[in-house]
Structure formats: structure tokens, C-alpha cells
Amino acid sequence: MRGRKAQIAVGVVAIVVIGLGIWVGPVIRDVIRAGFLESVSVEKYRAGREENLRAIHTALTLYHDSEGAYPPADRWMDAIENRLRINKMTAEEALAKLRTPGAKGDAFGYALATTAAEKYRDDIPGDPKLLVLEAPNAPRNHAVDGRPSAERWAITVDGKILPAPPADESR
After folding, report:
1. For the segment 112-171, what is each residue's pLDDT rounded down to a tens digit?
2. Is residue 49 a contact partner of residue 100, using CB atoms and an 8 Å limit?
3. Largest interatomic CA distance in the chain
4. How far apart are CA 162 and CA 145, in angstroms?
5. How far apart, in whole angstroms, are the C-alpha atoms of residue 20 and residue 6?
6. Phi-psi group of 87: left, alpha or beta (phi > 0 → left; psi -120 to 50 → alpha; rest → beta)
């Protein structure tokens, strides 16, 4: 009798497993097809002049909107660093946004316009209202009172890149 009960128990377990497979199988299949079980790929940030200036502009705008003014000139990069990291980006990739392409050693290569430091956007003098300029060999948190040139790019408070890069050089 004991052998018969064991056979029945095995049969019941088999029926339950098959039933669950029939019921859960399509759900699992759909989950797999949708890619939920695949590993997540993280795209590396590729630093470029225009991309970096736009990222810095966005971070400074977010800072401005939350604090009511742009950050102080002596710690502007420190103030916006946490606003540069998005999605699955690593801290190192976010930091790359604060370096001009090709910057070496301790150089960052960007400077906040001193006319924008600790000011509300409408109170910034000048036309155009400069926000950040490329400044070769500039250290972290550097600020300058300067103008963009043909060799160096800048971005205004309104997000306009100066001088406008030729179409083939912008990416």
C-alpha cells in the first residue's frame, strides 16, 4: 500500500508541476522576450566640447533654479558636480563633463564667467550673457572675466554656444 501512495503522490506532484508550467510558462516567456532578465548595458559617456558645455549649462541652470543664483566662482564645479550624473552614469563619467576634451593632469579647462557668479540670470551684464568659457589649463573651480575666441568655445545663460561651431565639428 505504501508503494501505491508514493506513486499517487509523485503523480500529483507531476500534475501540479506541469500545470504550473503551463500557467507560468507564457508569463516567463514574455518576461524573457521583454528583456527583463538580460544584463543592463551601461553606455560610456563620450566627452565632447559641445556635449560638455551643454551638460555644464544644464547643471548650472538646475543649481540656479534651486538656489536663486549661480554658484560662487571659487566653488562652482563643486556646487554642480552632483547635478551632472544621470541614469547609470558613473561618478568618473560625470566628472568627465567638467573637463575639456584633451585636458591633462590637474587641468579642467572650463571657467565660470565672473559676471555670472552668485547672480540671478537677469542681473548678469553683457550681451551675450556669458556663463562658462573654455580656458586652457584652467584648474578646478576656475573663473575668468573674458570673451570667447575663435579657438575657444563658450556657452551663454540662454544655452547658446559661442562661437557657433561649424556643422561638421559640433559632434
Report:
1. 999 999 999 999 998 889 999 998 889 999 999 877 777 789 999 999 999 765 655 444
2. yes
3. 98
4. 15
5. 21
6. left
